[in-house]
């Protein structure tokens, strides 16, 4: 037996990616009276469906993903590499470095 749906739900189901549960949620949250929103953009903004342009002083924000590289964790746990880096940094500051193994 087919399920009866309201015309608004049937219309929402025409949108790719919107299923019955999403259509019911949208109708429950927004309702079917669209006179509250002057334009479709206002509805999308209210529902936070539109991507925002995150800018401050001309700088664009947004995704904050930075690829750390394949050896990110190895470089922090490899003791020999850390030793070489510390020696190099001290020598760059003008120090002569000799290391003796602590007992």
TrEMBL record:
<dbReference type="InterPro" id="IPR003346">
    <property type="entry name" value="Transposase_20"/>
</dbReference>
<dbReference type="GO" id="GO:0003677">
    <property type="term" value="F:DNA binding"/>
</dbReference>
<dbReference type="InterPro" id="IPR047650">
    <property type="entry name" value="Transpos_IS110"/>
</dbReference>
<feature type="domain" description="Transposase IS116/IS110/IS902 C-terminal">
    <location>
        <begin position="10"/>
        <end position="65"/>
    </location>
</feature>
<protein>
    <submittedName>
        <fullName>Transposase</fullName>
    </submittedName>
</protein>
<dbReference type="GO" id="GO:0006313">
    <property type="term" value="P:DNA transposition"/>
</dbReference>
<dbReference type="GO" id="GO:0004803">
    <property type="term" value="F:transposase activity"/>
</dbReference>
<dbReference type="Pfam" id="PF02371">
    <property type="entry name" value="Transposase_20"/>
</dbReference>
